[in-house]
Amino acid sequence: MNNKQQKTEWRGLEIELAALEQLVQETVEIPNSWLPKEYQHGVDGCRTVSNLNGILDKKSGVSKHQQKKAVKAENVKIYRQSMEDHAEIDYSLGQVNAEQLYKNQQTFVEAQIQIGNIVIDEDE
Question: Within the chain, how many helices (H) and strands (E) appear?
Fold first, then answer.
């Protein structure tokens, strides 16, 4: 196994771990009794870790849009360095938004089905 294959395998593992982390954050609920007043949720009586992270992101002043722009800028820097070093872009080095990648893949397959490039056999 060469170095590029190892990086690709690790990249796949990183994507799966990021998806698992997001799932856990959306599943784990923290009761109001454990939270300071400003973080408590009056309707449900608890908040998810994902929701608390969103609140903290808003308080820090860094929006999701700014985070995406920072990730894109970092990826461009990584890809530029890859291009200079190897005369080709190694996409396994940059950060990937696993959720967006999944949505893009689903949209691509649905479009291929609609235009007839992919045929689903209903008998199976």
Answer: 4, 2
